[in-house]
Amino acid sequence: MKVFRKKPTENSPEKKPPNVRPPEKKNSHDRPPGKKNSRLRRWIVLLIASVLLLILLLCATDNRLTVRRYTVVTDKVEGTIRVVMVSDLHSATFGEDQEDLIRAIKREEPDVVVFVGDMCDNWEKHELAEDVFRAITPLYPCYYVTGNHEYWTGRSAEIVALFERYDLIVLMGESDILTVNGQTIRLCGIADAAAPGYTETGRTTEEQLETLAATFGDDGIFTLLLAHRPEFFEAYTKYDFDLVLSGHAHGGQIRIPGLINGVFAPNQGWFPKYAGGRYEENGTVMIVGRGLANNGGAVPRIFNPPELVVVEIEGAES
Predict the structure, then answer these.
(1) What spatial distance separates the first Cα and last Cα of the chain, rounded to whole Å?
(2) DSSP notation for 76-93
């Protein structure tokens, strides 16, 4: 007897699947060369960007001492008079016993050294300013005007008396005639605007300027004003000052070279007009030093290294 078997259908379990090779697992080593190169390029770009960012950060926060130079040309002198300006030390340290700062000043071979205020932050740290005075005042004529921090200590009279022991000529609404290299110039100086609020004898900035102007006469002498605060430049230009040297603004603390000269300065606020550099108005040149303070604070110095300022006063025909 014949047995007829049912022909397997498509869905029948007896229907064998076609002989198909299972897909092979991909090995990471078998990737196409293009993908490998792309990943390598990304790592190289990331590495270069990291190195550049590190270099930028190091440059931005570089607090090594720099020297900034300016030249002022006048027909009131013949030859050259070199002035070194020290501003806003704020009890900062430059080497043991301030040897780095002292060496930098000596290297410039100045004819006169001027200190335009805020040499110390408080009474306990006045020794850091004294280290500079002790080394420099025996070598060059030295002049000094107060800044606001000397008054904020509440002991400004004691600080000034101490500094005067180093033969500093302290100017508070006063002037002095100096002859160097056969050239004569007048140095004027005013006490900081904080003086009236902290001392009984302190005079306002305007009162001091009026007193100085009354002594000028028409003698044709090159006249230099030492004034801690640059924000009063318009007031200074009302009088016959040829050159004003100031500090106080700390360079605006944060700078973006070529774009922003300073972000914030005391008594000027955001984006100060006189953060640092050279300014000129009504025939008066003002040079604002960015200061020496390198000891931190609430806001770090960015692209704004501590600076020593050197001003060459040159005769027009020299």
Answers:
(1) 137
(2) S-SSEEEEEEE---TT--
Q: Where are the alpha helices (DSSP H) in 73-187?
A: 99-107, 127-136, 148-152, 156-164
How many other C-beta atoms lie within 10 A of the C-beta of residue 84? 24
Q: Which residues contact 298 (CB under 8 A, 6 or more apart)?
A: none
pLDDT digits (tens, 9 = 90+) for 71-112: 999 999 999 999 999 999 998 999 999 999 999 999 999 999
CB–CB of 141/169 below 8 Å? yes
Closest CA to 155 of 197, 199, 109: 199
How many residues does this entry show for the chain? 318
Q: Residue 209: which of 230, 196, 231, 225 has the closest Cα?
A: 225
Residue where the block lists tokens 């609404």:
173
Q: Which domains, from first to last, does the chain contain?
A: 66-315 (3.60.21.10)
d(CA 13, CA 5): 14
User: CA 263, CA 223: separation in Å to the nearest integer?
Assistant: 31
Cα(206)–Cα(204) distance, integer angstroms: 5
Q: At what angle do helices 99-107 and 127-136 cross, to 10 degrees?
A: 30
Q: Using one digit for the tens of pLDDT, what is the confidence trace for 145-177? A: 999 989 988 888 888 999 999 999 999 999 999
DSSP 120: -
Contact by Cβ (8 Å): 190, 227 = yes
Structure tokens, 76: 């009131």
